[in-house]
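F.,

This is the one I mentioned.
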């Protein structure tokens, strides 16, 4: 009977289980079978760093790929999808137990296919599927060839083959994602069912007891993304109420054969303004970056239109475009103080907690090429929602100043390393001036929450002293958020407000 135990090598397995625990493995044949297989195929399990059978310190990485699948209504003939399983890292890990959970409402398991001649299914133990949607298999590497390091995509040693179960696709989207997940190694469960986890180990074929030593490993889950309609999608995010620039990604899916597409976006022109459309396609060899796309503005409905070349994003061999990030839409946000157009999405939506909307539209004529089509599923238009965030500030930065701030082109948060938002001496002076020498009609503190450096709900001389000691003698730091931007903690006793927050945009 084969036994599985954990390696006593330095380190712990991903589940954090203690070393040296012995457990029972699946039902087995005589260890002689494995000795014969190793002899016939010249398997070499010796560790070059030590004696034969010694466990390598390198991790074994197991990965489920993420794959795309296209379903066309009324014309689909084949619904099979193959998902690669990969192994990398420790070349001495010749034993793998695979346990994969999948969605039985979307996928029907067909087969586990061995790729090449390096691996075999464990003799006498077939691939099984339990009633809850879990695939169970045990495999053996009979060659022990070198593998990529754990940080790189591993060797494709097997494939999970499914049939897509069509129907009930979400009507408000153009794709759905179904996950495939390894069941992680848990020695506690081995006492009940030794095959309900994923692990990698080393089988010592010279040991009559058939001992398998579990090696440390990394598990990376994957899944299947099913595309079933044409789609235009605008990314979203959140931003504070301060004038700033930001970028939203534009995604295109086309299940037909197109080269260009005419797109429009609707938005509240009193609050938002589309400045530029920047294509993300790589520049052709010998040419510089692609130029921006020409924009045509309109007032009824408020928004802008443009035409973009998408030919570079077609999948080779199929000419399909699947969720491609084709361009970035660069906007200017006017900030607080404007009430919107009265009929659009502005006004109250521009308050904290509200949403602004960037709605894509499809214009007549898709340009050169054949228009996409997928039965009666039609074209799906997914808007970008922009949530107005609570004020972000740095405690002590009472005027919300930013040193050398340039709006990030990718629409990311203010980079901690590139932009200085920390307080300086002028902020302490501003607190003292506000306390003892206020200037009539001139507000010297634009973010009161930031001036409350100890977050006690009051602005006092103690706040200036705390900030000065932090700046010059390394005293206690101000309360959060510090030293990087953030919002006032939920449990904060203070409610002083921040009229001028830092210009923060966070993309989804």
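My design for it:
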């Amino acid at each position: 009977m084969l036994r599985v135990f954990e390696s006593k090598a330095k380190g712990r397995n991903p589940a954090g289980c203690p070393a040296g625990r012995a457990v029972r493995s699946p039902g087995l044949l005589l260890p002689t079978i494995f000795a014969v297989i190793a002899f016939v195929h010249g398997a070499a399990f010796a560790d070059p760093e030590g004696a034969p059978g010694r466990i390598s310190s390198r991790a074994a990485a197991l990965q489920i790929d993420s794959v795309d699948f296209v379903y066309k209504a009324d014309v689909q003939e084949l619904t099979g999808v193959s998902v690669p399983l990969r192994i990398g890292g420790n070349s001495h890990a010749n034993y793998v137990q695979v346990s994969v959970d999948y969605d039985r409402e979307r996928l029907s398991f067909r087969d586990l296919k061995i790729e090449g001649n390096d691996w075999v299914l464990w003799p006498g133990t077939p691939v099984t599927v339990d009633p809850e949607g879990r695939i169970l298999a045990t495999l053996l590497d009979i060659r022990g060839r070198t593998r990529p390091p754990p940080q790189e995509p591993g060797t494709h040693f097997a494939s999970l083959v499914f049939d897509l179960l069509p129907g009930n696709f979400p009507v408000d989207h153009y794709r759905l994602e179904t996950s495939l997940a390894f069941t992680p190694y848990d020695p506690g469960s081995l006492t009940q069912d030794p095959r309900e986890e994923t692990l990698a180990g080393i089988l010592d074929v010279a040991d009559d007891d058939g001992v398998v030593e579990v090696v440390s490993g990394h598990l990376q889950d994957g899944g299947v993304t099913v595309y079933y309609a044409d789609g235009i999608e605008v990314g979203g995010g959140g931003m504070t109420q301060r004038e700033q620039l930001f970028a939203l990604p534009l995604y295109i899916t086309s299940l037909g054969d197109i080269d260009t597409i005419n797109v429009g976006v609707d938005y509240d022109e009193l609050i938002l303004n589309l400045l530029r459309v920047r294509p993300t396609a790589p520049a052709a060899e010998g040419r510089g970056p692609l130029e921006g796309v020409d924009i045509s503005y309109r007032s009824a409905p408020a928004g802008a239109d443009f035409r973009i070349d998408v030919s570079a994003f077609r999948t080779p061999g199929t000419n399909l475009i699947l969720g491609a990030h084709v361009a970035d839409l660069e906007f200017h946000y006017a900030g607080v103080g404007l009430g919107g157009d009265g009929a659009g999405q502005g006004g109250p939506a521009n308050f904290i907690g509200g949403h602004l909307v960037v709605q894509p539209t499809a214009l007549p004529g898709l340009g050169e090429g054949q228009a996409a089509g997928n039965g009666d599923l039609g074209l799906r238009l997914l808007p970008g929602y922009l949530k107005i965030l609570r004020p972000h500030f740095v405690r002590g930065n009472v005027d919300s100043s930013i040193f050398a701030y340039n709006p990030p082109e990718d629409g990311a948060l203010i980079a901690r390393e590139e932009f200085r938002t920390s307080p300086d001496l002028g902020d302490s002076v501003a607190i003292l001036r506000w306390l003892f020498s206020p200037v009539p009609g001139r507000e010297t503190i634009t973010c009161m929450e930031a001036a409350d450096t100890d977050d006690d709900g009051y602005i006092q001389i103690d706040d200036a002293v705390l900030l000065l000691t932090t700046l010059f003698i390394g005293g206690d730091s101000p309360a959060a958020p510090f030293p990087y931007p953030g919002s006032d903690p939920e449990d904060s006793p203070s409610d002083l407000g921040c009229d001028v927050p830092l210009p923060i945009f966070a993309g989804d």
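The radius of gyration is 30 Å.

Talk soon.
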